[in-house]
Amino acid sequence: MTLREYIRQFNYTLDRNLTRGVKWIILANVAVFLVDQLFFASFGNDDVFLWLFAQNPIVFLRELQYGGIELKINWLCPIQFLSYMFVHATFWHLFWNMLALWFFGPPLEALWGKVAFLKFYLFTGFMAGALHGMVAPFFIGEHYYMIGASGAVFGVLLAFAVYYPQQKVLLWFVLPMSSRYFVMLIGFVTFLSLLGGGGSHVSHLTHLAGLGFGYAWLRLRERFPTVWLFNEAGRPFTRIVRGSRFD
């Protein structure tokens, strides 16, 4: 079997088990991870990759040697609010985020359509990252990188619980519970973790923001179904006069 046939067979296998939008997101995350590991981290230049594509502080405040404060603006931040969600620190960081997307994303994409699902995913991740970027410098300083798809994935979890509240999921792959209570538990634990603060390398604020902005998108979609951000139209300013259902 030639390489082209292997690729075709692999793509066919993915299409049988995944919806198209979820497949694209997973492949994009895997591709970015491989580029980082093969061309940056392996040569000791991971900081360069993170400076370009991870979410860095919006502003940098530096004390000058002879007094005063210098303010520097991170002009890459609008791009980084999107790019950060495709960057992952380790294989397991990538694996767990993509596994959750694999489980919970396809039913939503099948319900909404590919374009609407991609809009939801990118909107939720972008807004969660933007909120973190505006708030975090005041609490953890300017020396940090924020990466990972979990803000957008938490939005997907929230949407799944809204549309399929009685669907059974396995907590820790062992304990069955309805998706509604599963997401409520995750949100509660994340909130407590945020209040606990200190020492963790996990951005609990981004996780909570993903839940919040995911819910906001669903409500706005119900209220303004013809607005481009919430419908299935691929091009801006295209109107689709068809409502959506919010259960």
First-last Cα distance: 48 Å
Strand fraction: 5-15%
CATH architecture: Up-down Bundle
Helix-strand pattern, N to C? HHHEEHHHHHEEHH
Q: From the structure provided, what is the oligomeric state, counting identical versus distinct chains?
A: single chain
Bin the helical content: 55-70%
CATH H level, superfamily name: Rhomboid-like
State mean pLDDT (0 to 100 scale). Answer: 82
**The CATH class:** Mainly Alpha
And the CATH topology?
Rhomboid-like fold
Sum up the overall morphology in one term. Answer: globular
Structural class: mainly alpha
Secondary structure tally, helices = 10
Question: How many domains make up the 3D coordinates?
Answer: 1
Query: Strands across the major sheet, in which order?
Result: 1-2
Could you give a short account of the major beta sheet?
Answer: 2 strands, antiparallel
